[in-house]
Each structure stands twice: as C-alpha cells, then as structure tokens.
C-alpha cells in the first residue's frame, strides 16, 4: 500500500468515529424528528401519519405567536451583550497590567453553572426575602414585584442571560482585538487618527468575522433559552416569559403532543438557519 | 534517519490505537443501556447458585430527594425480602429522578420500552389506564395489608377498573399550620384549635394585622403565606364546595361559581393585606414561614422538615383542618406508593419486595423519613406515631379529601398555575378566566378520549 493510501486510510479511521458519533447523536434524531413532525404521537399509541396537519396547525396557533413574540423580545439583549462585551474587551486590551486577572474574572461568570445561577437569582428577586427588594427597602424605596410583572420578569431573564454570556463574548472579542495587526494602528496614528477612529475604522472591521460568529451564536442561544426560565419564573407570570422552545417542550412532555412539538422545533430550526444565513450574508457583503 | 522513521511509525501506531479506542467507546455507548446502568433484562441474567436461589436485581424509579435514606431503607427491605423468599436473592438498584420530572421520565422510558421493575410515586391513574402497571389485587388480597388498611378513599386512588395497582404507604393531605407563638403575641386567646371556620380565621388574620408584630428579621408579620400553585390553592376551592373534575375525569368543572368563590376568598386575603406576597418558588415560600414572617400557612406534613431545617421550633406549631367555607374538604395528598411495572420480568420478586416494604420494620422507617401518618390500623397506636401532633388533624382531614382527576388533560396543572397567577396578581375577572380555561381543558379531554 502506498504512503498516500496509508495516510488516507488513517485519516478515515481517525475521522470515522466522529462521523459515526455525529450520525448517531445528531443526524438520526434529526431525521426522526422530521418524520415525527408529520405524525401524531403521544408516547403510548403507535405514531399515526397526519401529513401536513401539524404544519397547518402552526399557522393558526395564537399561543405559539405569543411565545414567538416573547422570544423576539429576548433578542433585544443580544446587541446589548455584544456591545457591552466589545467595550469590555476593548478596555481590557488597553490594560498594561492585570489583564489576566480581569480575563479570569470576566470568564468566571460564564463558568458558573446555569442552574446554580438561576437558583441564586430566584432568591435575589424573591418578592418577600429577595436581596434586591431588601436593598430597596433599606434605601426607603418601595419593593418591586420583579417576577410578577410581565415586563420586569422578562428583564430579569435577560439580565441572567447577559450575566452568563458577557464574560464569554468579552474573551472572544479580546482574542480578536489582540490579533489585529498593530502596524495598522501605527499607520493610522501617523495619519492623526484618535482612539474613536481607530476603533471604528480598524478594530471593528478587523474583528468582523468574530462579530458575525458571536451574533449567530447569540441568536441560537437566545432561541434555546430554557433552564434559567424554568427555574426562575417557570414561564410565568401567566406564561409571559415562555419562549418558543419552552412551548415546544411543554407540548411534548406535558401535553404529550410529540408530533406538534417536533413540528415547532423543525420550523424553529429552519428559522434559525435562515437568520444565521442572513447574518452571514450581511457580514460577507460588508467585507 | 532510522530514528526519525521509527518515531513516525510509533506515532502512527499511537494514532491508530487512539482511533480504535475511540471507535470502541462510541460503539460501546451506542450499544449499551445509555445511562450506563444495568437494564432489567441484563439483571435477569444475574443468577446466583448460592442457597439455590436466583439473584435478581430490581430496578426502581424513585424521587431523587433523600437518596441516601431511600437506598438504606430499600436495601434493608431487599434483605428482608431475600430472607423470606424461597426463590430469590433480591437486590435493589435505584434510578433517581426529581419528583417533578417523574411523569416525563416514565413517558420516555415507556416509549423506549425500557421501564424499570418498580416505581415509587403517588398513584397515577394515567399509568393504570395505559396498562403500564401490574395488577396487584391478588397480592394485596393475600397480604396482611388487606383488612389492616384504614383509609378506603386513599386505597381507591390505587384502583382502576376494579383492579388494584398501587397501595399508598402513607396518608397525606393539606391542612392549616399556625405559629402559636405569633398568635399569642398578637393577642389571640385561642391558640390551640384543630378546626376553624372561615370567619373565625379572617378575624384572627385581622387581629394579627392590627397588632403590627415584627419578626426577628425586622419585617412585619403577616397573617398568612401561600404559594401560587394549583396544589396549595385547591383546598380553598374544595372548601368552598367547588370541584376540578368529575370522578371519572371526563368533565372539567372548575368553572363553577363555588370554585370561583373559593378563589375570590383566597384573593381577598391578599387584597385585605392579610397575606404576605404570594410566592411561586417552594423554597422561598417555606422561608417566609420558618422566618416567622407569617402566622398561618396551608401545606402538608412534608413541609415540617423544611421548617425544622430552617430553624423553626416545631413545638411552636399548631394544626387545624382547612378553614371551613362550605366545608373543610382538602386536596388528596397521594403521598407515596409503590407499583410494579407490567413490563417487569421479575414481577414475583418485585411483589416479594413490596411485602417487605410494607413489613412493620421498614414501614416505620418510611413514615419517619416522609413525616406521614400510618395507613395501617396495626401501627396506628404505635408509640412512634401516637404522639405525632399532626395525627388527629390529618386523620380528620383524610376522611374529607378529594383528588384531582386530571388524567385526560395533562396540560391542566401548567395552565391552571398560569390562571392562578393571573387571577391573584391582576384584577382580571375570576369567573370568565375559569370558564375560558374550562372550555379549553374540556376540549383537550375530548381530544384525548377520542
């Protein structure tokens, strides 16, 4: 056997397990889900093929529309997180000393388990003994029913998301900023560019691929928010913090409507793929 | 050069070895039981020649709380069962899951034909109707439990279509718990009662409000604390004469004026400033009472452990039946029961384990762990339970309880929780909200009964 063939075989052997793993863990369930979206299935009776009935139901489900609007509302936190992370990364990149400390501190927020964070936030925002309300009353201010108001509850959920993600994106942007060719800054300085112009005309365009990656990743994670909402608000008050993904989970495991839940997830995946493609295209055009 | 060639060859061998190892891991994961635990079918093969008995490992799905104590009690039960058995050496392997996820876990395991041998949970009519559980009628009739069981209505919850599928091991219900100390400080004379009317209760709440008591944490002591959940709110609806579903679960009836009245009365406590801000989180809600920020609460005996862990002296507590609006009917607390899955390959061994679980030695350990009262006459006067302060009230309450037969409408609990949030936190009309949800739930029942 020639050297090239041996190398090629070794490559297949090395890649094979990963492909197999991917096929078993991702591709097969995805195909099953696609199939399920054309069926009615409640765990106990055999699946029944119903054609496009589940897809037609999507269009006339007002509750789903509500959950979609909730999810889109959460999307507002995406740009805020990206902007805050970028500013933090930019400031951190200027540090002459202590950058390692700040990096670890920022990244620490992303390392905390989501469940633990959500439980802590539940205690913090409790109407009776929450630290936040205790602080307000100690300042002679009125306590706020954080988790009982539809808008405030959403803001608290977004705050957790921000807290959990800002560290990760800061480190991501910092690595991008530190990778920018320093000669570009030197040349700009010779032309009399200040901090603002250097940031807008050099840093931002140079880290655009990182930004696009961050925007796509963040969109996906916002659509997939589940655990923190379940622990913090259980979807309340009266369902106002539920996302489309949570709605699908409830349809599947509470209402036993697996087929309809699969349909929601299939459509959600297509929407996410389209949104990601649009973000990617916008990034490419600018380049 | 030779050295470099040898080095390359070693590297290739290591790479190939790693690849094979990875492949083995992946294939192993694909072919195994998924969670790495032995499945019932695997345990079937574990036969022991010793003592001429077959060794059987029974898998049991159980709530993940008290895991250590559960393991100890069940291992002891397995030892007793093995000693009493002519055929089996029984071992138990626990598959733990949070109680809130128990139904989902059973759904998924049933769909994958991978149910364990036994399950420890409240009686679930939906599992009985779906044929998931094994018929225990014969076992029960032949066991000493038959004739010793005190609460027929509780046992009825383990039946479906005339067959018995699960035997509740402890009796639970929701009742009124009060802090005698706080009542006394508020100037209330009667601080030791085991039943109360709605008007008497409201008068006490008013007195507490007027007293302006402050708790150790500096906060005002409220009369009452409650959690926004269907389970803890149901006693108010039942007490007002309302119902949720008909006994056979085919009709949703919570849109009645009586049910609306129960909810309106509960809401009036918040509006009048008698209740602390309602909580949705169980732990936060518990803390309001153990921090002595409220004098009354409505819950079951299982909460006493949380209060004690929170530092509350249980000697301060008094117990009463649910405040009587039309009557003092409360919600059925199914507590704990054990069932055998129909798919189990070891039904005989599983029923032998059940017999051991209900033997006095083990039974008393369960009750101690779960703060329940015995359902068996023979243990009713046992010194371990005779002085239990909740026993008289709970016994009274258990003769006047109702279950919620929501089996045909699985979404009911989530949707009713949402209705409660809306009703209690906003000024929405209770009647119309209940009517509207009742219509939606009735539609769900009809769809599921098709």
From TrEMBL, chain A:
Pfam families per the UniProt record, alphabetical: BPD_transp_1
Entry-linked SUPFAM superfamilies: MetI-like (SSF161098)
GO-annotated biological processes: transmembrane transport
InterPro entries linked: ABC_transporter_permease, MetI-like, MetI-like_sf
Annotated ABC transmembrane type-1 domain residues: 71-279
Coiled coil: none
Transmembrane helix recorded as keyword: yes
Subcellular location: Cell membrane
Protein family (similarity comment): Belongs to the binding-protein-dependent transport system permease family.
Protein name: Lactose ABC transporter permease
Species: Paenibacillus agaridevorans
UniProtKB/TrEMBL annotation, chain B:
GO MF terms, alphabetically ordered: maltose binding
Position of the signal peptide: 1-31
An annotated GO BP: maltodextrin transmembrane transport
One GO term describing the cellular component: ATP-binding cassette (ABC) transporter complex, substrate-binding subunit-containing
Matches recorded under SUPFAM superfamilies: Periplasmic binding protein-like II
Keyword Signal carried by entry: yes
Highest taxon, organism lineage: Bacteria
UniProt keyword annotations, A-Z: Signal, Transport
Gene3D superfamilies to which the protein is assigned, alphabetical: Periplasmic binding protein-like II
Classification via PANTHER family: MALTOSE-BINDING PERIPLASMIC PROTEIN, MALTOSE_MALTODEXTRIN-BINDING PERIPLASMIC PROTEIN
Family: Belongs to the bacterial solute-binding protein 1 family.
Protein name as it appears in the record: ABC transporter substrate-binding protein
Biological source species: Paenibacillus agaridevorans
């Amino acid at each position: 056997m020639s050297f090239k063939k041996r190398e090629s075989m070794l490559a297949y052997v090395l890649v094979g397990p990963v492909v197999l793993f991917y096929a078993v863990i991702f591709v097969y369930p995805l195909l099953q889900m696609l199939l399920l979206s054309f069926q009615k299935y409640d765990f106990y009776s055999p699946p029944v093929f119903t054609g496009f009935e589940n897809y037609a139901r999507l269009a006339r489900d007002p509750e789903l529309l509500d959950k979609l609007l909730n999810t889109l509302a959460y999307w507002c936190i995406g740009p805020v997180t990206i902007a805050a992370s970028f500013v933090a990364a930019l400031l951190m990149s200027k540090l002459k000393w202590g950058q390692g400390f700040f990096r670890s501190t920022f990244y620490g927020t992303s390392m905390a388990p989501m469940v633990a964070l959500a439980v802590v936030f539940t205690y913090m925002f409790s109407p009776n003994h929450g630290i936040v309300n205790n602080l307000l009353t100690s300042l002679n201010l009125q306590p706020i029913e954080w988790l009982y108001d539809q808008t405030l509850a959403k803001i608290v959920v977004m705050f957790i998301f921000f807290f959990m993600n800002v560290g990760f994106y800061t480190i991501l942007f910092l690595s991008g900023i530190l990778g920018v060719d320093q000669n570009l800054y030197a040349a700009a300085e010779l032309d009399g560019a200040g901090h603002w112009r250097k940031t807008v005309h050099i840093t931002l365009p140079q880290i655009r691929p990182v930004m696009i990656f961050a925007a796509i990743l963040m969109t996906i994670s916002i659509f997939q928010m589940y655990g923190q909402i379940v622990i913090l608000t259980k979807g309340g008050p009266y369902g106002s913090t539920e996302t489309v993904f949570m709605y699908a989970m409830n349809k599947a495991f509470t209402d036993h409507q697996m087929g309809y839940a699969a349909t929601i997830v299939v459509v959600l995946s297509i929407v996410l793929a389209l949104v990601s493609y649009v973000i990617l295209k916008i990034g490419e055009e600018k380049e | 050069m030779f050295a470099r060639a040898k080095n390359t060859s070693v590297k290739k061998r290591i790479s190939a070895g790693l690849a094979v190892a990875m492949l083995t891991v992946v294939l192993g994961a694909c072919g195994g039981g998924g969670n790495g635990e032995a499945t019932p079918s695997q345990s079937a093969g574990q036969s022991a020649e010793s003592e001429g008995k077959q060794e059987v490992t029974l898998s049991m799905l159980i709530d993940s709380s008290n895991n250590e104590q559960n393991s100890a009690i069940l291992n002891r039960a397995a030892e007793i069962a093995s000693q009493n058995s002519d055929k089996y050496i029984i071992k138990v392997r626990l598959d733990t899951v949070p109680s809130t996820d128990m139904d989902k876990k059973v759904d998924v395991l049933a769909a994958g034909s991978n149910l364990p041998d036994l399950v420890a949970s409240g009686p679930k009519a939906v599992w009985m109707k779906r044929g998931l559980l094994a018929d225990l009628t014969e076992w029960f009739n032949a066991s000493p439990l038959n004739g010793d069981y005190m609460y027929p209505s509780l046992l009825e919850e383990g039946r479906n279509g005339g067959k018995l599928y699960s035997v509740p091991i402890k009796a639970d219900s929701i009742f009124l718990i009060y802090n005698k100390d706080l009542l006394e400080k508020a100037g209330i004379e009667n601080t030791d009662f085991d039943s109360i009317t709605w008007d008497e209760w409201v008068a006490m709440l008013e007195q507490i409000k007027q007293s302006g008591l402050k708790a150790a944490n500096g906060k005002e002591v409220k009369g009452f604390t409650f959690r926004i959940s269907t389970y803890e709110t149901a006693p108010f609806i039942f007490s007002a004469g309302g119902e949720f579903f008909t006994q056979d679960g085919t009709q949703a009836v919570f849109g009645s004026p009586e049910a609306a009245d129960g909810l309106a009365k509960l809401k009036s406590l918040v509006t009048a400033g008698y209740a602390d801000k309602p909580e949705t989180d169980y732990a936060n809600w518990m803390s309001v009472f153990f921090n002595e920020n409220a004098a009354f609460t409505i819950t079951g005996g299982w909460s006493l452990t949380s209060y004690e862990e929170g530092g509350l002296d249980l000697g301060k507590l008094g117990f009463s039946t649910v405040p009587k609006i039309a009557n003092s009917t409360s919600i059925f607390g199914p507590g704990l029961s054990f069932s055998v899955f129909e798919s189990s390959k070891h039904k005989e061994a599983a029923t032998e384990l059940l017999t051991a679980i209900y033997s006095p030695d083990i039974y008393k350990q369960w009750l101690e762990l779960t703060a329940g009262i015995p359902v068996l006459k023979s243990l009713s006067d046992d010194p371990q339970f005779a002085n239990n302060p909740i026993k008289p009230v709970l016994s009274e309450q258990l003769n006047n309880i109702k279950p919620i037969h929501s089996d045909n409408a699985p979404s009911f609990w989530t949707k009713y929780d949402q209705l409660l949030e809306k009703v209690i936190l906003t000024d929405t009309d209770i009647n119309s909200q209940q009517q509207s949800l009742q219509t939606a739930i009735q539609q769900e029942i009809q769809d599921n009964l098709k």
